[in-house]
Write a structure and sequence with these properties.
By secondary structure, the chain is of the alpha+beta class. Helices cover 33% and strands 30% of the residues. It has four helices and eight strands. It has helices at residues 5-19, 31-42, 85-92, 112-118; strands spanning 23-26, 46-52, 59-64, 71-73, 79-80, 100-105, 108-111, 122-128. Strands 4, 5, 6, 7 and 8 form a five-stranded antiparallel beta sheet that branches. Strands 1-3-2 form a three-stranded antiparallel beta sheet.
Length: 129
Amino acid sequence: MQQDTFSDAMSSINNAVDAGNKYATISPTSNLVKNLLLKLQELEYIGVFEYVEDGQGGKFRVEVKNHINECQSVKPRFSVQNEEYSKWAKRYLPAQGFGELLVTTSHGLMTHYEAREEGIGGKLLGYVY
């Protein structure tokens, strides 16, 4: 039973990369998963993706590039203040300036670099590098 669509999406992408597959299928879908895919596409970790209606909530077919070493969700969803991003980056990212933390904020899903520039905190959802 799938209860966390964000975590399932991150696992599907990570499994496709580990298996060497060119495409990953993510289901069920949600607006958060769509925003995740748009952010990963903007960061050039994935290629194009398309929504496929299957009568059961739909699914995304995602072109996976080999630029991802690891992407995982973080549980529990820690609250992060603006001045704490470096602490969480040290905890989840392999090196300074390498990879991104994914944070949901009042301005939407963004990386910790974007959130730091805007001076806002949020909830830590996951990381990718």
